[in-house]
Amino acid sequence: MSRTIAISSGKGGVGKTTLAVNLATALASRALLVDGDLGLANVDVLLGIEPRRTLRDLVDQGLPPSEVLVESGFGFAVLPASSGVPEMARLDQQGSAALFAALDRIAAEFDVILVDTAAGIGPSVLAFNDWAALSCVVITPDPTSLTDGYALVKVLHNRLQKNRFYFVINEVADQQEGKAVFTHMRSVLANFLGCQAELLGCIPQDAAVREAIRSRQPLLAQQASSRAARAIAAIADRLRQL
């Protein structure tokens, strides 16, 4: 089975999709990025691609994954999702079974599969984290992000019996702030949930990130020497060691 990693966040706007796109760029060889925000997809927007088919076609029409896969243009493959389709965000049991059966079939073709889930604690978020071997949680130092990040972990722990979580602290002023945020989160999770937390890395605030988003290219392809890009590359190296 390929290494499967769900990238999730308690709240939106913390840079989860940007991280997923750039990790896929860093891990490009035999990597697949699945847009797991089934009803409000935006991986295609960040990559500047316009897919003809999406996961909706895979579920509704029973298309094989190979007919939905698209090349990102940056060395990795993408399984795009649909946007503005609320029924995809609340798949029934049959649709969910079809989706994960397809993912199981295609998994062996890739060394790593990254799933950019929706934000929050919806059914699809739980399903993708249940399927994935590793759960990566993205938070920022913002108090609302910390609160929602804890809530996400609590749900994944209680519903799925997950006990180990990997954290990325985004938009930090410096590494010291990021490590302080993680130390606090690790302590809270250990004390209240009995969960283990590991730090994958901290990503600094960097204007280059916004520039890359506006240009619809991965930061690692556009400004690989920027501070944020170097931090994401280090996170990718850490994932290779797990």
Defining traits:
19% strand; globular; 8 strands; 8-stranded mixed β-sheet; 242 residues; alpha/beta; single chain; Rossmann fold
What does this structure look like?
- The protein is an alpha/beta fold.
- It has a single domain, classed as Rossmann fold.
- It contains eleven helices and eight strands.
- It has helices spanning 16-26, 43-47, 55-61, 86-89, 93-107, 123-131, 143-160, 175-192, 207-215, 219-222, 227-241, and strands at residues 3-8, 31-36, 70-71, 77-79, 112-117, 134-139, 164-172, 196-204.
- Strands 3-4-2-5-1-6-7-8 form an eight-stranded mixed sheet, with helices on both faces.
- Strand 3 (70-71) and strand 4 form a beta hairpin.
- The radius of gyration is 17 Å and the shape is globular.
- The mean pLDDT is 93.
- The SSE string, one letter per element, is EHEHHEEHHEHEHEHEHHH
Work out the oligomeric state of the chains in this entry: single chain
CATH topology: Rossmann fold
Would you tell me the overall average pLDDT? 93
Which CATH C-level class is it? Alpha Beta
Number of helices: 11
Largest sheet: 8 strands, mixed
CATH superfamily: P-loop containing nucleotide triphosphate hydrolases
Total strand count, please? 8
Unreliable residue runs: none
The Rg value, from CA coordinates, equals 17 Å
> What proportion of the residues is helical, as a percent range?
40-55%
Distance between the termini: 15 Å
Widest sheet, order of strands: 3-4-2-5-1-6-7-8
| Structural classification | alpha/beta
Beta-strand percent range: 15-25%
Shape: globular
Count of individual domains: 1
What is the CATH architecture assignment? Answer: 3-Layer(aba) Sandwich
